[in-house]
């Protein structure tokens, strides 16, 4: 007998970085399943516009994932308006590309603050609610760059490796409590964050809706490792068994070293300009703690 999906009707879901990209697509997919959704992002006006377009009673809230107080208010207000939290999707993230030796300290710190420390903060806030209830599902959006370091995105890769390890460790700690975890690892996703990236061989860009559907599937049929597309999981597992020089040769054959390293910086200018316009320029240390350009993960 085929396994039946877990119903998502009435489930309360909070999504960070929900105004655009993967976050928006995930909210839309969950609303279609009957879930009650709150989206959080730094730009409240854009978040409210997204919520209005999504409909379904979507709650729009301002959120800076680098500010623990802001994150606490986001989760608390989600519960006040919608009910006890069932699912947190830690999706907000940024990616800066270029040679590691040329990366600014502010750029590195911003990626760590948003991509890693933001996920840590959100995970703790979710678990503080899940553990007493012995139920809940934590979804952390990482990247295939969390399984293989990608040239041109060294710090980004480092943050995504950390998210993968963090989520695996949490999974071990909550085993037997009724709480579930998922780590989502997409290849590059067709969002503004992926502007100017080069295509590898064999696997092209996926759509935000592909990642959203994979997240919904992981909630309906719980599983920890969520690769998008699925065949990337098989490639990753096979690669882990091969000698390093072989896996590196395969990577070069697939041109994975050009995906970020060969990015068209002019094509990425709009994304980077929007990040700066959010009063969160990655090059200005004073703004680092406030940065959260609202696109969802690219997964690289």
Report on this model:
The protein is α/β, with parallel strands linked by helices. The chain is 45% helix and 12% strand. It is built from ten helices and seven strands. It has a seven-stranded parallel sheet, with helices on both faces. α2 links the parallel β2 and β3. α1 packs across α6, α3 runs parallel beside α4 and α4 runs parallel beside α5. The longest helix has 29 residues. It is globular.
Number of domains: 1
Number of strands: 7
Largest sheet: 7 strands, parallel
Q: Which homologous superfamily in CATH is the superfamily?
A: NAD(P)-binding Rossmann-like Domain
The CATH architecture is 3-Layer(aba) Sandwich
CATH topology term: Rossmann fold
- Overall residue-averaged pLDDT value: 84
Span between termini:
37 Å
DSSP strand content: 5-15%
How many DSSP H or I helices? 10
- The helicity comes to 40-55%
Structural class: alpha/beta
Distinctive features:
about 300 residues, disordered C terminus, 10 helices, alpha/beta, single chain, seven-stranded parallel beta sheet
Layout of SSEs?
Blueprint: E1 12-16, H1 21-32, E2 36-41, H2 44-54, E3 59-62, H3 68-82, E4 87-90, H4 105-133, E5 136-141, H5 154-173, E6 179-186, H6 208-220, E7 225-228, H7 231-241, H8 244-253, H9 256-259, H10 269-277
Parallel strand pairs: 1-2, 1-4, 2-3, 4-5, 5-6, 6-7
Helix pairs in contact: 1-6, 3-4, 4-5
Region (Disordered): 263-300
Family: Belongs to the short-chain dehydrogenases/reductases (SDR) family.
Pfam families: adh_short
């Amino acid at each position: 007998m085929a396994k039946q999906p877990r119903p998502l009707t009435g489930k309360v879901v909070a999504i960070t970085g929900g105004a655009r990209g993967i976050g928006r697509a995930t909210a839309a997919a969950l609303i279609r399943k009957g879930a009650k959704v709150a989206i959080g992002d730094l730009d409240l006006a854009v978040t409210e516009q997204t919520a209005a377009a999504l409909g379904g009673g979507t709650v729009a809230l301002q959120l800076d994932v680098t500010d623990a107080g802001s994150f606490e208010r986001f989760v608390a207000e989600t519960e006040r308006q919608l009910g006890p939290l069932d699912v947190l999707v830690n999706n907000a993230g940024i990616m800066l590309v270029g040679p590691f030796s040329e990366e600014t300290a502010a750029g590195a710190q911003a990626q760590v603050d948003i991509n890693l420390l933001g996920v840590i903060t959100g995970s703790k806030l979710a678990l503080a609610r899940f553990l007493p209830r012995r139920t809940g599902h934590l979804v952390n959006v990482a990247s295939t760059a969390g399984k293989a370091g990608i040239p041109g995105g060294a710090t980004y890769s480092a943050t995504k490796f950390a998210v993968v390890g963090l989520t695996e460790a949490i999974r071990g700690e909550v085993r037997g409590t009724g709480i579930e975890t998922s780590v989502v690892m997409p290849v590059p996703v067709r969002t503004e964050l992926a502007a100017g990236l080069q295509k590898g061989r064999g696997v092209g860009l996926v759509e935000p809706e592909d990642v959203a559907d994979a997240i919904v599937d992981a909630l309906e049929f719980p599983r920890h490792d969520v690769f998008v597309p699925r065949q990337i999981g098989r490639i990753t597992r096979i690669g882990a068994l091969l000698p390093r020089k072989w896996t590196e040769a395969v990577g070069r054959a697939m041109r994975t070293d050009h995906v970020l390293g060969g990015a068209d910086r002019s094509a990425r200018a709009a994304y980077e300009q929007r990040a700066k316009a959010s009063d969160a320029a990655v090059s200005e240390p004073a703004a680092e703690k406030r940065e959260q350009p609202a696109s969802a993960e690219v997964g690289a």
